Amino acid sequence: MKKLIIIIVVVAVGYLINLKFVDIAYAMGFAELKKEAILINDQKMKVKCDSYAFGFFDEIKLENKFQQCINDYQAQGYVVLDAVQTDSDA
What we know:
- By secondary structure, this protein is an alpha+beta fold.
- 48% of the residues lie in helices and 33% in strands.
- The protein has one domain (2-88).
- Strand 1 and strand 2 (46-55) form a beta hairpin.
């Protein structure tokens, strides 16, 4: 019984330490960014542009590369079918 209580306490303390570490990391600028766009042309061919970063990154540079990918395919006659963006920061 004593071992079970010790394990529960250790797991709870570990969870709280991890939670605070994540909060501090995000407060210092650590983040996750994921963008994805699926484009389709009139022949039903699909292509995907995506951008992913985890950690400390230049969001403007990533956005420019992602948008350039979309622009290149749109110039070839593709249209955006679906777009997803996920930003994770605290």
